[in-house]
DNA sequence: TATTGTTATACTCTATAACTATA
DNA sequence: TATAGTTATAGAGTATAACAATA
């Protein structure tokens, strides 16, 4: 229990540090990481667990830096799809690779331990859609 | 790796929800939880991984609600010790107990799985002091 | 000189409420 | 009527820089 708290703290401290190196806030880094494919603003709000009105500002700031862009959805003209630009894609690649190399603990595990870890997490994570 | 991200997201989502029920922000809840014993402002800044100037405001707001108080340190008159009030202690007890009951996953594990989990976490947590 | 805590400042995140344009 | 996104607003977190008091 305390270990879960520490693991969570470690993960976010690491994530925030990696993002900060690129002048990104935690939320900006999270949003970029979520955009594996184009997504409506609304979906981003759900995944980031924040109000839809906040997404406007975050996308604005990332857009001003050329990391994401909005595009109209032909099938529903209310919807705006958000997607990474080329530069955004590259930034996400860098973040992911640095996250990996900072948290090498899991990668250095044997097969058996890794499976035990995943089994345990699946019990603790009944309702996570991220 | 992705599982660690999900576990961290789950933990903080749960923590923030429990804190919000008591009209506390995530940082306010974190600070209360850290105050197992009186602590200088400076130590809180280190544990919360934020600038010392932020601690002033957070302690101010918690103090205005009667959950913490400052006290002079006789041995170094620059230092102010922050400690929980009686109401603060009770709030922390409630938060802890609700966190536990929400994340029952770990508690329901068998001995073997629990040990595997702790062994894994200890590999991922080389530098966590919280 | 260095450290502790505060203040001032500017920016970001946050929820709420009111608005528009679509559906 | 309901939904997607925006805007306005107020409160909270954030780092930086400058400051007073103390070491």
UniProtKB/TrEMBL annotation, chains A, B:
GO molecular function ontology, one term from the record: DNA-binding transcription factor activity
Q: In its UniProt record, which GO terms are filed under biological process?
A: response to stress
Where does the sequence pass through the membrane? none
Q: Which SMART domains match?
A: HTH_MARR
Coiled coil regions, renumbered to chain: none
Pfam families under this entry? MarR
- Boundaries of every HTH marR-type domain copy: 1-126
Q: Give the protein name, as stated in the record.
A: MarR family transcriptional regulator
What is the source species? Streptomyces inhibens
Q: What is the lineage of its organism?
A: Bacteria, Bacillati, Actinomycetota, Actinomycetes, Kitasatosporales
């Amino acid at each position: 229990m305390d270990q879960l708290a520490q693991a969570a703290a470690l993960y976010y401290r690491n994530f925030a540090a990696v993002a900060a190196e690129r002048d990104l806030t935690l939320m900006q880094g999270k949003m970029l990481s979520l955009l594996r494919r184009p997504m409506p603003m609304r979906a981003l709000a759900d995944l980031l667990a924040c109000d839809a009105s906040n997404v406007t500002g975050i996308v604005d700031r990332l857009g001003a830096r050329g990391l994401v862009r909005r595009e109209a959805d032909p099938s529903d003209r209310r919807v705006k799809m958000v997607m990474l630009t080329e530069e955004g894609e590259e930034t996400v690649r860098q973040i992911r690779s640095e996250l990996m190399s900072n948290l090498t603990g899991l990668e250095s595990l044997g097969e058996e331990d890794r499976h035990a870890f995943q089994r345990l997490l699946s019990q603790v994570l009944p309702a996570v859609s991220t």
